[in-house]
Amino acid sequence: MSLAYPIKNVKDLAHAFAAADEFMSALSSRLYPQPNSVIMNPAEDFYVAPYCFMRTKNRVETGFLVFSSMAPFIKTDEHEAACTLIKRNGHHKAPFLNTIEGFQETLCLDEKDIWTFTSDGCVPTAEDVSQELEDKAIRVVCDLMKWRYPYDWRVKRAEVAYIFTNWPVLDLAEYDSRRGQIEQLQHQHHQLQRNQQQQQQQQQQQQQHYHHPQQEQEHFYDARQYAKDDQKKTKEEKKETPAFDYLPLPPIHSPVQQKGGGFFERNADIFGNKFVEDDDGNTFFSNNDTVVYDENDIFGDIDGI
Predict the structure, then answer these.
(1) Each residue's pLDDT tens digit, 243-282
(2) Three-state DSSP class for 225?
(3) Which residue, 70, 155, 207, 290, is the most exposed by fewest CB within 10 angstroms?
(4) What is the pLDDT of residues 195-223, one digit of tens each?
(5) Which residues pair with 175 in a beta bridge?
(6) Cα angle value 155/160/161 (rounded, 5°)
(7) DSSP characters for 2-64?
(8) Distance CA 262, CA 287 (A)
(9) Range with lowest mean pLDDT among 62-66, 138-142, 258-262
(10) Would you state the pLDDT for residue 230?
(11) Residue 284 gets which letter from DSSP?
């Protein structure tokens, strides 16, 4: 929600800031029924701060000084109740309530007719709220309207200030003095959070590196499966492979064996060889059809003995 105060001359600037303080006091009385319980601060959505100056065309007013809440689109019954309280018991006129876009549409203004006070042109945040932002708002309006800068505008503001009893407003001078301490504490808090997150990530990485129960289970399962597959394959190969492949090959010349009774005679056809018998009845193991008998052969020498 935004507040708009009409500005006709330089004196109205101090009155507009005093009226904004009065509105926050009235709003606090509706939001916080318990007196002196809470002082509204920039961390809350309802807190308002100067945002822009809307210069009007063909109107009696020179323009409108617009204050925006930290949540620009928030509007509750408490806003209307605060305006009613100001109209009944306040010292200043109640502000016009609307959104930034609503004011721009109502006043038929272009973007070039709106001058913002924040560095990025967006609605103010808690980091923007300061006395410096208020001084900048006064300076921008005075430069735009060619008015002399009123160095005593804070004194004039205090002279016309009014707040409802037991619902004070935030003192920005004190708030700025504590800003450095607050920012330092916030920085330390964020640094502590980052360190804790890094430690948690490191612990999780170590746990994942040293302990993977699911992966170990899958690994052992795969090993057993591979062993079963290997055993099955070995059995299948043994079924398909003839047993004689595992026997040693016989020598070229076989010892004297009784025809038909020796191992080689029984398996000669299996190995693709055959046994032949010479004229003297000696049996030879041969892999050729032609048998050549040498007198110097060991079998000949045995016969000579």
Answers:
(1) 444 445 555 554 444 444 555 555 554 444 555 556 666 6
(2) helix
(3) 290
(4) 888 888 888 887 776 655 555 455 445 55
(5) none
(6) 90
(7) EEEEEESSTHHHHHHHHHHHHHHHHHHHHH--STTS----TTSTT-EEEEEEEE-SSSSSSEE
(8) 17
(9) 258-262
(10) 62
(11) E
Residue 139 to residue 118: CA distance in whole angstroms: 13
302: nearest Cα among 275, 280, 279, 286: 280
H-state helical runs in the chain:
11-31, 77-89, 100-106, 131-145, 153-160, 172-210, 213-240, 263-271, 298-304
Residue 42 pLDDT exceeds 70: yes
CA pair distance 123, 132, nearest whole angstrom: 15
User: What one-letter code names the amino acid at 7?
Assistant: I
**Which residue matches tokens 């001359």?**
9
The structure tokens listed for 172 are 């920005």
pTM above 0.70, yes or no: no
Here the tokens at position 13 are 């600037």
Q: Is residue 62 within 8 Å of residue 11, measured between CB atoms?
A: no
Contacts 24+ apart (CB under 8 A), 214-221: none
Q: Is 102 helix (H, G, I), strand (E, B) or coil?
A: helix
Q: How far is CA 80 from the centre of its chain?
A: 41
Phi (first) and psi of residue 89, to 5 degrees: -130, 0
Look at residue 232 and give its three-state secondary structure.
helix
Identify residue 95 by its one-letter amino acid code: P
Distance CA 274, CA 291 (A): 11
Q: What angle is formed at CA 86 by the lines to CA 23 and CA 94, rounded to 5 degrees?
A: 70
292 confidence band (pLDDT: 50, 70, 90) = very low
